[in-house]
UniProtKB/TrEMBL annotation:
<protein>
    <recommendedName>
        <fullName>Methyltransferase domain-containing protein</fullName>
    </recommendedName>
</protein>
<dbReference type="Pfam" id="PF13649">
    <property type="entry name" value="Methyltransf_25"/>
</dbReference>
<dbReference type="InterPro" id="IPR041698">
    <property type="entry name" value="Methyltransf_25"/>
</dbReference>
<dbReference type="InterPro" id="IPR029063">
    <property type="entry name" value="SAM-dependent_MTases_sf"/>
</dbReference>
<feature type="domain" description="Methyltransferase">
    <location>
        <begin position="3"/>
        <end position="90"/>
    </location>
</feature>
Length: 175
């Protein structure tokens, strides 16, 4: 299960936060990056398994757009691993997009229905952004701060009820 992708976010954070150690986890960590700071390391890991990090050793965890990759039955383990490696007082930031479109037209609605069926067949939770807060609460996370961002798709009509959008939900969790 990948996490770091091309490593750009980790590279930017390590470059900006020179006093912090940045670790990127991925099945296939990125190839050697030119100008890679000394405080950046990539580790080969599958986030759906036990992470190669000590318990209580991480101050900040950032994860974005993994809802399309993490299967429904894997979320509890991934979230438990986040809680395990997070130090007391640490923060987790999850940024995930709804997998469906809000106020879609007929063609987009048909595509969303097709995509929902594909998610079911792949074991993904099409509506995980609507239930992840309950998952976080059940695992024992505290101080959840949820923010929702509307991202326009195409031109936005004057009537706000007819706006087509993609919704990103961000959880900032202080443990």
């Amino acid at each position: 299960m990948g996490c770091t992708g091309n490593g750009i976010w980790a590279l930017e954070m390590a470059s900006e936060q020179l006093n912090c150690k940045v670790i990127g986890l991925d099945l296939r960590p990125p190839a050697e990056q030119q100008g890679k700071p000394k405080n950046l390391n990539y580790q080969e890991a599958d986030i759906t398994e036990t992470w190669p990090l000590e318990s209580g050793s991480v101050d900040y965890i950032f994860q974005r757009n993994m809802g399309q990759s993490i299967q429904k039955d894997q979320w509890p383990h991934v979230l438990n691993e986040m809680l395990r490696v997070l130090r007391p007082g640490g923060t987790i930031e999850l940024v995930e997009a709804d997998l469906w479109h809000h106020n879609p037209g007929p063609v987009q609605r048909a595509f969303d229905e097709f995509y929902q069926q594909q998610c079911t067949e792949l074991g993904l939770d099409f509506a995980f952004t609507e239930v992840i807060e309950k998952e976080l609460d059940a695992i024992g996370f505290t101080e959840l701060d949820q923010r929702t961002l509307d991202v326009p798709i195409g031109e936005w009509p004057q009537d706000s009820g007819k706006k087509r959008k993609k919704v990103y939900t961000s959880f900032l969790i202080d443990n």
